[in-house]
Amino acid sequence: MTIKDFFKSHNIEAYSAIPLSRCKILREYLLTKNGLDRDCYAIMMLFPYRCEKKPINLTVYASVRDYHSYIESFSRELESFLKEKHPQGKFKVFSDHSPIDEVHGCCVSGLGFIGDNGLLITEKYSSFVFLGECITDVDPKELGLELANEVEVRGCLHCGKCKSACPSGCIGQDVDKKLECLSAITQKKGALSEDEEALIVKNGSIWGCDICQNVCPYTRNAEYTPVEFFRNDVIQCLDLETLEALGEEFNTRPFAWRGMDTIKRNVLLYENKMRREKK
Ligand code: B12
Ligand code: SF4
Ligand code: SF4
Predict the structure, then answer these.
(1) Quick one: which of 21, 51, 175, 196 has the fewest CB in 10 Å?
(2) Which-ligand-closest: CA of 211?
(3) Residue 104 CA, ligand 3 centroid: distance in Å
(4) Ligand 2 — pocket residues by CB below 6 A?
(5) Does 96 qualify as catalytic in the annotation?
């Protein structure tokens, strides 16, 4: 089996190899810790995740099972597949908690372009793709992959829809303002301010925020994911009853890393809203 066959058998349609030197390094220690350095290569990969079942009070990424666990098991398979062919080589898959700016990395490897909402957008799945990369010291040509040509960072239509729709006004602002992104607010631990609570209640998502993705013109005709993992066990509405019934399954959900208290606080905001609306 070639690496291309491997990707095909896992429904990974989009991947691209580039020298790591083209990427923006955010966390150097993750390279060092894994015996890697800036002379390595990165095989950038996309994982489409939006399925047909539209969530009611969650974002798409929070309604499906945790992508970190999907990518973790995918990486075990990919790393051992490559290690078998190149026993001397180093291979390490990252996603999210990564040494690099993944949006920029996927863009300069030709897999998509960067929206004004800061996300990587593809023609086929819009921005509903998770990003990951396998960093290796083996020349991709030896793995059966061509190195991608150098690609300039490309932007979107700049139609302004995401900026006008963003409830916290953080699009196009500098780094500090990003902390006000509703997605970050839903993930904050402890007590929220009244304004933060009101923002969650008004916008209806108790984990994450998809507003700038949903209004984006590229999302209109975007396809759904072919990856089975993201098509099954979807939670469309997370109320208190559903949350408490999860039991062990709680740990397989994207909100679990923040602990039960944080998501429960947000579920209660939703429940209170529903109660008020019924009156
Ligand atoms: C921290 C983080 C967050 C934080 C802060 C986001 C931020 N941009 O700072 C919070 C919690 C708010 C967040 C929210 C979300 N996140 Co997040 N996040 C990350 C993480 C871990 C690091 C991002 C980072 O620090 N980038 C570096 C700094 C310097 O970036 P920046 O200043 O924002 O620079 C951006 C722009 O300047 C742009 N850019 C650079 N040059 C140019 C040039 C042009 C022309 C243009 C137009 C743009 C541009 O590129 C950079 C993109 O990151 C990444 C994973 C990773 N390792 O990259 C995931 C990641 C970006 N997040 C992801 C997701 C899915 C989300 C959410 C959609 C989840 C949700 N539904 O709620 C939201 C979307 C919010 C948004 N509109 O950005 C995905 C994005 C997938 C995609 N298609 O792009 C990533 C890649 C995780 C993954 N592995 O899939 N996230
Ligand atoms: S995720 Fe929501 S709050 Fe964050 S930038 Fe997009 S629209 Fe704004
Ligand atoms: S909504 Fe418009 S400006 Fe925002 S990312 Fe999509 S195309 Fe770009």
Answers:
(1) 175
(2) 2
(3) 16
(4) 117, 166-168, 170-171, 181-183, 209, 211-212
(5) yes
Q: How far apart are CA 216 and CA 101, in angstroms?
A: 22
Torsion 194-200-204-206 (CA) sign: negative
**Which is it for the CA torsion 173, 176, 178, 181, positive or negative?**
negative
Among 27, 102, 114, 215, the mutation site with the greatest number of ligand 1 atoms within 8 A of its Cβ is 102
Query: Alpha helices, DSSP H only, in the chain?
Result: 3-9, 28-33, 60-63, 67-85, 102-108, 140-143, 161-165, 175-178, 182-186, 194-203, 211-214, 240-245, 260-278
Which ligand has the minimum distance to the alpha carbon of residue 106? Answer: 1
pTM of whole model > 0.90? yes
pLDDT value for 174 = 78
Q: Locate 79 and state its tokens.
A: 């790393």
Q: Which of 29, 97, 179, 183 to mutate to test the pocket of ligand 1 (most atoms within 8 A of CB)?
A: 183
Q: Looking at ligand 1, which atom is closest to the CA of residue 208?
A: 72
Share the mean pLDDT of the chain. 96
Domain ranges, ordered by start, for the chain = 3-51+66-143, 161-278
Structure-block tokens of residue 114: 């960067």
- For residue 258, what pLDDT band results from cuts at 50, 70 and 90? very high
